[in-house]
Write a structure and sequence with these properties.
363 residues; mainly alpha
């Protein structure tokens, strides 16, 4: 746990000025990019990066290739061709330089750079570091980014696209969604975000009413979705999986999130952001305990809360309460990982070292 706590403290010590966005980005990038064996999907991405011999393959599907796929086996090769095209381009770069760890650096950079670019549009730039502190502390953001590397890039690009939503530049917004889909097709669910430009303000009573209704509409919505032809077949499986872990924590986080929106940042200038974030909270409540569908969709919307953090931290008392809450959230997430019955994912943190041409790591 100690490395995570150290990074949290370093982020906290960054001066509140216009450069805090850059310094926060660099610190988290180095921490994220230098990891080794950390994250549940590590074994999915890293073995493919080691297949230097795949450099001869096209970025397109096998029937465009002259080399027989059976020459190297179908394991990593099948996963490679199952990835969206931008991911295949990243692997081409990794294989060209013959350095497997580069795939982690590339995904880490892309995940974080679009968050940095998005945050640059915030007016209160001296408080941007607190957005990074929340990103690092909240399990739904940084820790989950260590797992869903392809989708993490897509989420960050959608986050960045908000500047085109508020400027009503629909062509650049659609371009962002298409680029995000080239990393993970689930980004298609975000295409309707542009419609927030045409929504009126939402009252506190409506927010609370929808919050309580979300407890009771799960079965109805699941039936509609499972009957729909709009959702790609490979995502239907996420609707059929169930789990019971973390339900109480989800209830607590949703309650705190709704409270945060209603009583702290419910301002006229934040109306569009509130609409988007509320979708994430409602998805979390409706699909609680239902496989990975909610995980793969809610973060697209919840991540927008980073835009609201500077507004909160302008007040000194609220800022201190916010820092304490973030510290508690980070520790709870790491403790939950340590005691998890499914095995540890984030603790201990390991770093990548290259010694005598062999990959090694240390805690």
């Amino acid at each position: 746990m100690l490395p995570y706590i150290v990074i949290f403290i370093i982020l906290l010590l960054i001066k509140n000025n216009k450069n805090s966005n850059f310094y926060s980005f660099i610190i988290i990038f180095l921490f994220m990019g230098n990891r080794y064996g950390v994250g549940s999907d590590w074994e999915l991405y890293y073995p493919i990066a080691k297949k230097i011999e795949f450099l001869d393959y096209s970025i397109f599907y096998p029937f465009f290739n002259k080399i027989s796929p059976m020459q190297y086996g179908w394991g990593e090769l099948y996963r490679y061709f199952n990835f969206e095209i931008s991911n295949r381009i990243l692997y081409k770069i990794v294989w060209f330089f013959k350095w497997p760890q580069l795939i982690i650096y590339l995904y880490s950079f892309l995940c974080l750079i679009f968050i940095k670019l998005g945050l640059e549009n915030i007016k209160n730039k001296e408080y941007i570091k607190y957005s990074w502190i929340l990103f690092f502390s909240f399990q739904e953001f940084f820790l989950l980014y260590l797992n869903l590397m392809r989708q993490a890039v897509a989420i960050s690009i959608v986050f960045f696209s908000y500047k085109f939503i508020i400027k009503r530049n629909k062509y650049k917004f659609i371009a962002c969604i298409l680029i995000a889909m080239s990393f993970h097709t689930s980004a298609i669910f975000c295409v309707f975000l542009y419609l927030v430009n045409y929504l009126n303000s939402i009252s506190k009573k409506t927010i609370i009413l929808l919050y309580f209704l979300s407890f009771f509409v799960k079965d109805i919505i699941l039936f509609i979705l499972k009957s729909s032809t709009f959702i790609p077949t490979k995502y239907i499986g996420y609707l059929q999986q169930t789990f019971s872990g973390g339900i109480k924590i989800n209830y607590l986080l949703n309650f705190l999130g709704i409270f945060f929106i209603i009583f702290i940042v419910n301002k006229k200038e934040t109306r569009k952001l509130i609409f988007i974030i509320l979708i994430g909270f409602y998805l979390n409540m409706i699909f609680k305990g239902t496989g990975y569908l909610v995980i793969r969709t809610r973060i697209y919307f919840l991540i927008f809360i980073l835009y609201l953090v500077p507004l909160l931290c302008k007040n000194k008392l609220k800022k201190y309460i916010f820092i304490v809450c973030c510290y508690i959230l980070l520790n709870l997430s790491l403790i939950n990982d340590i005691v998890s019955e499914y095995g540890r994912i984030y603790v201990p943190y390991k770093i990548f070292l290259k010694i005598n041409n062999k990959e090694e790591w240390e805690m």
